[in-house]
TrEMBL record:
Name this polypeptide is given: XRE family transcriptional regulator
Domain HTH cro/C1-type: 18-72
Molecular-function annotations in GO: DNA binding
Pfam families named among the record's database cross-references: HTH_3
InterPro entries: Cro/C1-type_HTH, Lambda_DNA-bd_dom_sf
UniProt signal peptide: none
CDD domains: HTH_XRE
Organism this protein belongs to: Kribbella pittospori
Region span, Disordered: 72-102
Length: 102
């Protein structure tokens, strides 16, 4: 029988979400470590056995994984992502004036 919290999550879900998001982005633990300023060992520890993270670590981790802090805690189906600065804005065609016909 799985040990679930009151919200139905299994302990360790946070670490699995971090790892899944990292793999989804095609990043290595070293790349995430570089982006966050944390050590590779710390990233590996967060993915396997997350303990108390500071607010600063959560913020840096969410930015490195192009998501929000709540996105790291939310179940996959409801995980929000923040707009990527690397994603170009779509090009819109100029609006054309139409003559009003009566």
């Amino acid at each position: 029988m799985e040990n679930r919290s009151q919200n139905g999550e299994v302990p360790g879900d946070f670490g699995r979400r971090v790892k899944h998001r990292r793999l989804e982005l095609g990043l290595s633990t070293a790349e995430v470590a570089e982006r966050t300023g944390m050590s590779t060992r710390r990233i590996e520890h967060i993915e396997t056995d997350p303990d108390a993270l500071t607010g600063g670590e959560l913020l840096r981790l969410s930015r490195a994984l192009d998501t929000t802090i709540s996105g790291l805690f939310a179940p996959r189906r409801s995980r929000p992502t923040r707009p990527s600065v690397l994603t170009p804005e779509p090009e819109l065609e100029p609006m054309r004036r139409t003559s009003a016909s009566s």
